[in-house]
């Protein structure tokens, strides 16, 4: 019994990791409330989750806060355009919902493809910004290359991000539990799963840097 209570036991490490996920999730959601800072908050979350996935020794909250502050200015170069694109997508979806069935289906398909392309870019852009210091233009080019060059990993990352929405859509009774899951731990947990998927590539890039 005493072995289970040791700080380096598997059980205690699991509890510690779960607590870190809850704390980082809460910090990230709070920092996302002012929409303009959400880009930096997501970058900070990804930084900490990647460090956890790489099993690095890290001070979780301190690392999150340091990343938030250091990436806040650069996030203003890419996050506001993402918000604009999201708003345009919602507006366009509302407009085409009033069109004919055929036209609405075609435009909705094109819109969904565009959203997937943006998300595929973002799942690589965020960790690149979190770990590498260069201009946003270079980050965008590298993110596009990774999104296409590591298409399997990109697809897996998108599946992780889409899973809560898929569950809520397929099982309406699960919408409330899914919402609570996202509030308590979901955003950080998704970032951790994405970090596990991307860890090998990020490790190789950091070795070259």
UniProtKB/TrEMBL annotation:
Membrane-spanning residues: 22-45, 76-94, 106-132, 144-167, 179-197
InterPro entries, per the entry: DUF624
Pfam families given in the database record: DUF624 (PF04854)
This protein's UniProt keywords: Membrane, Transmembrane, Transmembrane helix
Keyword Transit peptide: no
Protein name: Predicted integral membrane protein
Organism: Actinomyces slackii
């Amino acid at each position: 019994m005493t072995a289970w209570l040791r700080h380096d036991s598997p059980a205690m490490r699991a509890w510690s990791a779960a607590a870190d996920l809850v704390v980082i999730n809460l910090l990230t959601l709070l920092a996302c409330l002012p929409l303009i800072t959400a880009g930096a908050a997501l970058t900070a979350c990804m930084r900490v989750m990647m460090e956890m996935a790489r099993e690095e020794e890290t001070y979780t909250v301190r690392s999150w806060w340091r990343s938030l502050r250091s990436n806040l200015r650069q996030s203003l170069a890419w996050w506001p355009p993402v918000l604009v694109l999201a708003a345009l997508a919602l507006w366009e979806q509302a407009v085409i919902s009033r069109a004919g069935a055929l036209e609405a289906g075609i435009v909705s398909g094109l819109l969904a493809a565009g959203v997937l392309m943006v998300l595929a870019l973002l799942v690589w852009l965020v960790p690149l910004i979190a770990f590498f210091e260069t201009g946003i233009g270079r980050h965008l080019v590298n993110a596009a290359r990774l999104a296409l060059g590591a298409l399997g990993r990109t697809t897996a990352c998108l599946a992780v991000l889409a899973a809560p929405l898929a569950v809520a859509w397929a099982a309406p009774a699960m919408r409330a539990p899914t919402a609570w899951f996202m509030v308590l731990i979901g955003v950080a947990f998704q970032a951790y799963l994405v970090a596990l998927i991307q860890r090998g590539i990020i490790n190789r890039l950091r070795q070259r840097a």
